[in-house]
Specification:
With 134 residues, the chain is an alpha+beta fold. It has three helices and seven strands.
Length: 134
């Protein structure tokens, strides 16, 4: 996540990394691209965005990496469409590619934010594909 943030053009947007130090996800090395795409999309389309936050939550035996922002959010009708190739205002590849990268190692991604209150992407990492730091 930190590597992706270094490459992103953040402007005045603050990125908060609330992932436990030493947390590891056993995923394709392109996961850095996924984090970059999430930050880049938030900055491009988030409108009034000031903060992007990464955190982790437990969900049974799985861990959920959360990327959320305080921007405009995504309308309900587009929550699944944003992951389709060609959808969007730029190339339409970012989130489609992100889903494919995560899928290689069994990680799922979905958008669960509330329109008008910010986007929230949840990446569910299955048991055995992570090690949580302290």
């Amino acid at each position: 996540m930190d590597t992706a943030a270094k490459g992103a053009h953040l402007g005045n947007v603050i990125v908060k990394n609330d992932l436990a130090s030493g947390t590891e996800v056993f995923a394709d090395p392109l996961i850095v691209t996924v984090f970059y795409n999430l930050m880049d999309n938030a900055i491009r389309y988030g409108g009034k965005i000031t903060t992007i936050r990464f955190s982790i939550e437990e969900a049974g035996d799985d861990q959920v990496i959360v990327c959320e922002d305080d921007g405009d959010g995504i309308i309900f009708e587009e929550k699944e469409k944003i992951f389709e190739r060609g959808f969007g205002k730029n190339t339409g590849l970012g989130l489609a590619l992100s889903r494919e990268i995560l899928d290689i190692t069994g990680i799922t991604i979905r958008e669960t934010g509330e329109p008008g209150k910010g986007a929230r992407f949840e990446m569910t990492v299955p048991k055995g594909a992570y090690r949580v730091g302290k």
